[in-house]
Amino acid sequence: MIDSQTIINRFLKYVSFDTQSSEENDRELPSTPGQMVLARFLAEELKSLGLTDVSLDAQGYVMGTLPATAGITGSTVGFIAHMDTSPEASGKDVKPLLVRNYDGKDILLNRDKKILFSTEDFPEVKKYRGQDILFTDGTTLLGADDKAGVAAIVTALEYFRDHPEIPHGTLRVGFTPDEETGRSSSAFDVAKFGADFAYTVDGGELGGLEYENFNADNPVITFHGRSVHTGSAKGKMKNALTLAMEWQQALPAGEKPEYTEGYEGFFHVHKITGDVETCKIHMLIRDHDKKHFEERKAFLDRLAAFLNEKYGAGSVEVEHRDMYFNMGEKIRDGHMAVVELAKEAMEAVGVTPSVDPIRGGTDGARLSWRGLPCPNLFTGGANFHGRFEYLPIPSLVKACETVVEIGKRGYRI
Q1: Which of 12, 238, 250, 255 has its CA 20 to 30 A from that of 171?
Q2: Residue 111 half-sphere exposure, CB side, CA atoms within 13 Å?
Q3: Residue 53 has pLDDT above 90, yes or no
Q4: What positions constitute the catalytic site (predicted)?
Q5: What does the CA dihedral 399, 405, 408, 409 come to, rounded to 10 degrees?
Q6: Is 178 labelled a binding residue?
Q7: With the C-alpha atoms ordered 118, 129, 398, 134, is the resulting torsion angle positive or negative?
Q8: Is the peptide bond between 353 and the residue preceding it cis, with omega within 30 degrees of 0?
Q9: Is 288 within any annotated ligand binding site?
């Protein structure tokens, strides 16, 4: 149904734009100028495909409408993807490597730098033996998260344009900045978007369908010390770094990302900065269960109280930063038909749905809590946020075909 070369060419065009977002710039949206460059390109592309109400605002949000086939009324379905790529790896000068008919063996991504894609490190890739797969040259990420989602949506719109005999309801599309920094949905105009429900096309491997995700808190813990010359420090110095290490050691040993899976939550220290006077720990608290989530936050508060009693009032400060909540609470409250529609669409194109909780979050989580039910669909990619990312082409094609099928059926919900 979908021409694979067309969607490959479109995806490769998108990854030529450097849209890596920045966690350091929390004042502007988008956080990097490259995202706006791609946003302008996409707005023009949507116009060229015949969409109406195409808009691009000052913060980089692109929206457009594919009007319903004449005579069709019903629900308006939305599809959303983000334009930025992860701050964790460079997205500049991406050099895609298309491996035809993959043989299941190790791949030399970069001869000069001796960068090897090892099947021992990533054995999951072997299930795509015999398929065409996009990799990189090992120096950047690929950008399938989420330019594969953008490509799937736009190619589906093009398919509807080229096949006017296929009936569909009103479709709304939205492309957003700064999903990777957690700010994408903050300025997303749900009322302007005007969909009755939507899907983020921002998932991983073939068949993925998610409507549950973590509750998320990104607390920052600040430790206040007192620096005294080491020669006369006895009984006077209070080393903020020592307090931070004690904090880390007090966290439950088995409740870390490297020891958990499925619905299991965790505590994660991902950044430590500072010196004797002041030290900061940046953490992630994650749990699918809201009660357990709040208990984890309370545990940190009790730990801070304990250390303040031990080292003096004000030694430790905890600033909780709730980021998003489990969209499952909203989806299960009268919106499971949206999930069933996605399952039916996948099965119609020969894909077996794999419904699993997201061990992370999506724009859909925040949007679901803002009144727009928004499960997450697969894009086909794997190993996101790093230089060993890859994208099996047949999986990307199936992602696009799934969008088409939802577009054909969604107005009936």
Answers
A1: 12
A2: 0
A3: yes
A4: 84, 179 (proton acceptor)
A5: -120
A6: no
A7: positive
A8: no
A9: no
For residue 78, give the nearest of 185, 165, 164, 206 by alpha carbon.
185
Domain boundaries, the chain: 4-213+326-412, 215-324
Say which of 18, 45, 84, 401 is annotated catalytic.
84
Average pLDDT rounded to a whole number, residues 378-387? 96
What is the second-level CATH architecture of the domain 215-324? 2-Layer Sandwich (3.30)
Tens-place pLDDT, residues 208-240: 999 999 999 999 999 999 999 999 999 999 999
Residue 48: pLDDT over 90: yes
Measure the CA–CA gap between 271 and 284, rounded to whole angstroms.
10
Is 295 annotated to bind ligand?
Answer: no
CA 66 to chain centre: 25
Of 135, 107, 129, 128, the residue nearest 119 (C-alpha): 107
179 is annotated as an active-site residue:
yes
Q: Catalytic pick from 178, 179, 217, 401?
A: 179
User: What's the CATH number for 4-213+326-412?
Assistant: 3.40.630.10
Across 183-192, 330-339, 379-388, least confident range: 183-192
Strands 391-392 and 133-135 come out as antiparallel
Q: What is the dihedral of CA 398, 403, 407, 412, to 10 degrees?
A: 90
145 assigned ligand-binding residue = yes
Quick one: which of 81, 65, 74, 69 has its CA closest to 193?
65
- pLDDT bucket at 23, cuts 50 / 70 / 90: confident
